[in-house]
């Protein structure tokens, strides 16, 4: 009798459901997604991996995290909040995208004010322009698309690390700590490095995706900049060809990250993958691509 009552109640609820709710996609069980991710990570002994997934479709939300609040060296993913702050200051009228910025490879350590220069970068072309002026927009785009360290430090000299951090905190992502520009070796040796968590990066990308980081129009422009990313060996490599991926990578020794907004189906989702402990970037890229494939398959099923 009890079983009959349960079946009857279930049928009644089903009959009362609207057509929209009946056709809404069923989100994957976080446990099933977690099992897939764990199986992948198990094939990479010695790696520490954090994953954050944020997906909302048809009013249903899927949220999955693995080591979501584990602290990592941010590497170049810290350039995402630097970009947000640049857009915010332009939006507020404090700066213009056409403002000229002199290209100089001279910076001050946050430890003692001593001068240092950037010696390792992924955008060699910018160094040929030293002594010339480039626009604020050009430098902002280079900081993301070619992950230019020189452009990033020039931007931080303008918008300031304190302002970047204040915006990060306002957006509810305190796990992201932006203390300084890149290649400040004295600061690194003193333990003063930019840090992040998977959850913090996911929160920032959610804000951009939803038009709530600066403004809907500014955030749409930021998505376009992220979409022009030159380094696509991690998350995009695991997704179907042609999938739009607005993302930012970052790597230093045994650190390799990718943080993305993926436009692969009815609703875009956020995927952040942070890795530590893998010396070979080809291997860490493969790990990230496998996780991206598993997440995409689960969300688009």
List keywords for this structure.
disordered N terminus; globular; single chain; 19% strand; 301 residues; 11 helices; two-stranded antiparallel sheet; 11 strands; alpha+beta
What is the element layout, followed by pairings?
Elements: H1 2-16, H2 19-23, H3 30-41, E1 48-57, E2 60-66, E3 72-73, H4 79-91, E4 100-102, E5 107-108, E6 115-116, E7 133-135, H5 136-145, H6 149-159, H7 161-170, H8 185-189, E8 195-196, H9 198-209, H10 216-227, E9 244-252, E10 255-263, E11 269-276, H11 281-299
Antiparallel strand pairs: 1-2, 1-11, 3-8, 4-7, 5-6, 9-10, 10-11
Describe this structure in words.
This protein is an alpha+beta fold. The chain has a domain at 23-95 and 164-299: 3-Layer(aba) Sandwich (Beta-lactamase), CATH 3.40.710.10. The chain is 41% helix and 19% strand. The chain has eleven helices and eleven strands. It has helices at residues 2-16, 19-23, 30-41, 79-91, 136-145, 149-159, 161-170, 185-189, 198-209, 216-227, 281-299; strands at 48-57, 60-66, 72-73, 100-102, 107-108, 115-116, 133-135, 195-196, 244-252, 255-263, 269-276. Strands 2-1-11-10-9 form a five-stranded antiparallel beta sheet, sandwiched between helices. Helix 5 (136-145) packs across helix 6. It is globular, with a radius of gyration of 21 Å. The two termini are 36 Å apart. Residues 1-28 have low confidence and may be disordered.
């Amino acid at each position: 009798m009890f079983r009959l009552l349960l079946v009857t109640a279930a049928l009644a609820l089903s009959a009362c459901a609207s057509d929209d709710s009946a056709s809404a996609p069923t989100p994957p069980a976080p446990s099933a997604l977690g099992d897939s991710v764990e199986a992948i990570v198990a094939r990479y002994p010695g790696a520490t991996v954090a994953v954050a997934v944020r997906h909302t479709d048809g009013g249903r939300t899927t949220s999955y995290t693995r080591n979501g609040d584990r602290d990592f060296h941010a590497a170049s993913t810290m350039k995402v909040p630097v970009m947000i702050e640049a857009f915010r200051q332009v939006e507020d009228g404090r700066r213009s995208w056409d403002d000229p910025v002199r290209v100089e490879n001279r910076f001050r350590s946050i430890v003692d004010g001593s001068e240092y220069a950037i010696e390792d970068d992924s955008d060699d072309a910018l160094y040929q322009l030293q002594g010339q002026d480039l626009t604020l927009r050009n430098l902002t785009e280079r900081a993301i698309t070619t992950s230019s360290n020189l452009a990033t430090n020039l931007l931080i000299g303008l918008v300031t690390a304190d302002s970047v951090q204040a915006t990060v905190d306002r957006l509810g992502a305190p796990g992201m700590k932006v203390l300084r520009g890149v290649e400040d070796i004295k600061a690194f040796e003193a333990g003063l490095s930019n840090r992040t968590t998977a959850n913090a990066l996911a929160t920032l990308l959610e804000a951009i995706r939803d038009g709530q980081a600066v403004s809907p129009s500014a955030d749409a422009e930021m998505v376009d900049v992220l979409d022009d990313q030159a380094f696509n060996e991690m998350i995009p490599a695991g997704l179907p060809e042609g999938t739009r991926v607005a993302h930012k990578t970052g790597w230093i020794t045994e650190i390799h990250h990718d943080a993305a907004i993926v436009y692969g189906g009815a609703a875009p989702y956020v995927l952040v993958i942070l890795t530590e402990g893998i010396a070979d970037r080809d291997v860490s890229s493969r790990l990230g691509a496998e996780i991206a494939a598993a997440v995409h398959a689960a969300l688009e099923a």
